[in-house]
Every structure is written in structure tokens, then in C-alpha cells.
């Protein structure tokens, strides 16, 4: 079916994925589409991995590797296959693939973990080096060569502009009615030439429906027909339901106190079990006409749009389960004018998150007594996924909420620790911590007041006495009283876990 490639010049560049993969040289910086398992190229990465496997098996082969820049996480057909053949030298700015993760953590892959809003300006500024090839999935090519974006936009605008050469994958499995749902903003510039971004409501459209693409840069067009990753969500469990209840109680109190409007403020929500439970909770509450200014549209957001709880959602990508994608495809006419997909430097833009007053809700790995949050590292050294957009929204949002079960690994690990083993979100950015135990509201509190709030409301009872003991001894250590610590013991919980498997 070539009906999705309407531009005659580009129609002449159609080739197989294997032929397109031949055009990617060793050492290339390749900007790929893809964000949370949506809109990533499905065929060329696999063909390239096959080529790499073959070349690297030759006697005395010089390892063939490329650098992979994306929007965010992709899927086994991209990160998985390339990592498997050791084909990735350097990866940025976010991943969640198990094979990538193990290579990053065993030192055979370099990884740069950046705020998702900032990647495109780094590329524009030349901080990352030259982009050689952009490999972008689209839903179609129009007669004039402009592109109908697919189920994510991510950094595609920037990759197309920055790359010397472009390879397009035209995926006929993507719903043709995605056309018109995107808003690509062409007003960005580098300092000192920046102008305000004139977006004052999550529903605003400020750009174009299509990606501009110079046809002369396109060296290959590959046709595919494959679905996005569409991982199923875990159903909400008891812990995530309790976390959601604490957040909903908090919202209701803030509305009563006049600190939040009854429509709340635009919500940003990470993906996963707990954020999904919060969305379900909001949906069963009294809320109407909420808005979302977020990165990712997950199943919970579709349900909220359907019920009228949510009136509009702005994001850069979908991240739907198989049921979610079916619901979306079956009812796309209903959803089309309620969802706007933007490039990630706009969906996550600090100026916009601050102006709109986003309520940011993201997961944490661990949090310390004073409200510093680690979202990325296990025991200080091993990468989990990356900071993603959490920092974009946490620092600039109106309310920065971090959520987690109070323990991990069947109770062996406390999510509340004396000192975090890595810091992603500092005490200056974090406003609210929520576990199934309760909610700590850190606004207006000094570090010592925060320690009481966090230990009493969020720590698991099994770890509470040890946290109190640490804090009391730190208070009486004769050292600084602003942020009391026992330096020789501050990371002893992590060390104990590494040695014994139990904090
Ligand atoms: O691992 O499944 O192997 O047991 O971490 O933990 O509790 O299922 O929570 O899926 O929401 O992930 C911070 C990683 C939380 C995520 C993080 C282990 C735990 C489990 C997952 P297992 P849960 P979640 C918008 C914003 C950064 C990016 C971000 C994340 C696994 O939210 O990546 O916010 N955030 N983006 O057992 C050891 C601890 C642990 C621990 C949890 N203290 N020590 N292991 N785990 N705490 C979205 C995007 O940016 C795209």
C-alpha cells in the first residue's frame, strides 16, 4: 500500500529496511523517533542490528557501533535489538530497556541522561556533535513532502532539521486519522533571539499540523505495518490505591483552602501503576473539565476524556496498553480534538510548565529525610531508566508531587533513607512526598521540620524507629543543625543492603 506516500520524489526512494540500514555508517550519530514505546522506527533498527551482528562476526572486525539519540524510551525492536548486538556506543536521553540497562550498568554502553525538554536545544547548540542521520517513523508523506507525524513527536522536528540525511519509515498500522492531532511549533530559536512562547492554555494550538522535511535530505523511505509496543499496565494494587487516596484528599483540602481551583491545574502524570491509579481516582471523584499538560497519554487519560473528567490533554506521545489502543482506534473521532501532540521541547517546556502552573506527579526510587529525591539510581551506582521529564515538571510546576511505595523488594529496602545515594530532584524542588503510609507536605518547612513530616507520614513502620534514631543522633552530634547528618553513617543503609540484601 503506497497510498501513504503521496510525494512523487520520495516515492522513488522506497527501499527495503536492509537496503536502508546499509546507508548508516559506523560511528554515526543517529537521531531516532520514539517516545515511551510510541512512534519508534520498527524495521530499520532490526535490519541494522542484523548487519552489525554479521559485520562484527568477521575475523578482526573493528566493532561497528552507532550513537542513538531518541525522544525517550523505545521498544525491544529498537533499543533491545541494537543493545543485544552491542551496536550502541552512546545512548541519550532516556531508556527503559532491560538489555540497554544491563549494558549501561556493566560499562559496555555510555549513557547520557538529560532533561527531556533540553535535548533539542543541546543538539541545536552543537553541544552533542553533528547529527548524521535522522531515522523517523511517520504516519504518511504528503504530496508536498511534508510529513504526517505518528503516535509520538518527541525530538523529531529537531532531528529532521539537524540531520544531514533522513530515513523515513512510513507505518501504515498507525491510524490515518492521527492527521491533524499534532501541533509542531516552528518559533523556537537559540538565545539571544528567543521570543515568548504564546501558549496560555493546554488546548492552545500554536504551530503546524505537519513536520516540514526537505525532500533532498531523504535518502530512503521504508514501508512498515507494525503496531507500537503497547505494553499492558499492571492493574492498580492496594498500595497504589492508597497513594491515590492520599493525593485526592490533598487536592480536596487545597480546593477548600482556596489554593487550587475546583478544576485543579493542568496535570502532568508519569507512566506506571501509581500514576494510573491516581488518574482512576480522579475519574471516580467529583472532578469535571480538568486539563492535562503532560508528556504521555496513558489509558487513564483516555478514560478521563471519555467521562468528561478531562476536557483536553496536551502531550508528546501516547503510551497505551493493547486495550487502550483499541479504545483509541475505535473512537478516534471522539478523541481527535481533545488530544494535542507537541514536540517534547514544547510539551515539557519550563516556561510553559511555570506559566500554566502544572501539578507534577512522578515516581521516586528513594527520598531522604530532607526531601531530596533520587529517581534514577539503584544504590547510588546502577541506572534504572533516567530522569525523563520529571525534572522539567518538578522544578517548574506549581506543585511537585513524588510518589512511591514506602518499601521496595518485599520490604528489604526503605524508600525513605537518611541520605539519598543520588540526587535528581533537590529539596528546593520537591513539594510533596506520598507513600501508601501517607502524605508529607513540605511547603514552607525547614529541613528539620521536613524530617519530622517525612518520617511520621511516609516512612514504613518497620524503618521508622531507625530513621528517628539516626535523626536524633544527628541532632545531638554537635555538627551543623540546618541539615543534621552523621556523615559516617549517611549511606550505611545502602552499604548494608549491598552486603546483606537488607537495609
Ligand atoms: O523493580 O519491578 O524489578 O521489582 O524499581 O518501581 O515501584 O514499580 O514504580 O514503575 O513507577 O518506577 C522512579 C523507576 C519508579 C520511575 C521509577 C524498583 C522496584 C521495581 C520500579 P522490579 P515501581 P515505577 C514521566 C516522568 C523517572 C522518569 C520519570 C522512573 C522498579 O517512575 O523511571 O519520572 N522515573 N519520568 O522494585 C531498589 C529502591 C527502589 C527499587 C523502586 N529504593 N531500591 N529498587 N525500585 N525503588 C514519564 C517519562 O519520562 C517518560
Automatic annotation (TrEMBL):
Segments forming domain Acetyl-CoA hydrolase/transferase N-terminal: 12-223
Pfam families the record matches: AcetylCoA_hyd_C, AcetylCoA_hydro
Keyword Hydrolase part of the UniProt annotation: yes
Keywords: Hydrolase
Domain of life: Bacteria
Signal peptide: none
InterPro entries, per database record: AcetylCoA_hyd_C, AcetylCoA_hyd_C_sf, ActCoA_hydro, ActCoA_hydro_N, NagB/RpiA_transferase-like, Succinate_CoA_transferase
GO terms of molecular function: hydrolase activity
Segments forming domain Acetyl-CoA hydrolase/transferase C-terminal: 324-470
NCBIfam families to which the protein is assigned, alphabetical: YgfH_subfam
Family: Belongs to the acetyl-CoA hydrolase/transferase family.
Name this protein carries in UniProt: Acetyl-CoA hydrolase/transferase family protein
Organism annotation: Marinobacterium maritimum
Taxonomy of the source species: Bacteria, Pseudomonadati, Pseudomonadota, Gammaproteobacteria, Oceanospirillales
